[in-house]
Amino acid sequence: MMRVVAATRRRVGLGTWSESATWPCYRNTLDRSCLQGNFPGVSASGGKASASGQRLFGHSRLAPTPLGRRTTALQNQGDQLSLSLGHQLTVSPQHGQILPFSSNGGTEPGTSQESDHLETHTETVMMAALEKKLGSTFSRKSTLPSPSPLLIVISGPSGVGKDAVINRLREVHGDMHFVVTATTRPRRQGEVDGEDYIFMDKEDFEDLIERNELLEHALVYGDYKGIPKQQVRKALGKGTDVVLRLDVQGAATIRRLIPESLSIFLVAENERALVRRLLGRKTEPLDRALVRVETARQETKRIAEFDYVVENPSGKLEDTVRKISSIIEAEKLRMQQKAIRI
Ligand SMILES: Nc1ncnc2c1ncn2[C@@H]1O[C@H](COP(=O)(O)OP(=O)(O)OP(=O)(O)O)[C@@H](O)[C@H]1O
């Protein structure tokens, strides 16, 4: 037999009834005849439900009143209200609400006390009545289908802020895997091997290519960059979303190999801002910066190939990260999700 314990008087219908005239039988004590006439499907002696009980409970929640005396009276009576359904209610004024208890006094296996905390006394009783009528219990399992992990590609021209955005995303989404790209380019000041990039020499990188251990790789401005396959496979296998940072060419390769991936193109507010950002980084001489700017012009023409375009305006990195988070959140709610295979 299931017992239901009404825990706080403040949350429980009993503890918040109004003393208004709409509750004629409610006085200083809660007597059984009153309950019998007004609990839907509940009585102290197996009586029938009344529709007025539901209305009054609703009313009482809108007009809460302290109920020390009443609940004490109830407690003194040691009331255990038998549901006409064969369930039991134990009303306790000490805590905030009603919890279902198994016959051995513990919570039912697989139930969520957290969601029960939101239930009022009336709701619990009415749900028990509905469950009885339907002949089955209301599931506490999530109604949402479990989402497939996403493969998110963040791309855009050099200097647009891919690293800056990803570094901030990493702080916000600790539950995602951010692929560490392998590269042969020299380490910049402040970069940490294995965290920002996996820095390796050309021979080691070419060995990875030969062993087909890279999901994608390219020669960028004279240096190799590539995505170690194993890292991605492992994270997706655990159901973890994976974020890749790729140049525009690399993003195109991933789209071709994995059409189910989600691609986001970052842009600065305008070309001038992009160039300022590139120069401000002071990581390369003017001739190399010129190549990057020319390439950026070509790459920006490929915006339409991407699923989303997100502006990363100067000084508004947080907004950019928020927009990307919204995209990810929406994508996870898609009905038609395809599993990603590598
Ligand atoms: N929203 C922003 N506002 C101002 N500065 C920014 C913003 N986003 C990035 N930056 C700065 O712009 C410069 C370039 O950013 P970042 O290195 O992240 O670009 P990137 O796209 O990763 O470039 P590359 O592809 O060449 O590695 C950095 O100095 C970075 O701090």
TrEMBL record:
Name listed for the protein in its UniProt record: guanylate kinase
GO cellular component, one term: cytosol
Keyword match NAD: no
Bias kind Polar residues: ranges: 95-113
Organism: Chloropicon roscoffensis
Record key words, sorted: ATP-binding, Kinase, Nucleotide-binding, Transferase
Stretches the record annotates as Disordered: 95-115
Family: Belongs to the guanylate kinase family.
Top EC class of this enzyme: transferase
Signal peptide span: none
GO terms, molecular function: ATP binding; GMP kinase activity
SUPFAM superfamilies per the UniProt record, alphabetical: P-loop containing nucleoside triphosphate hydrolases
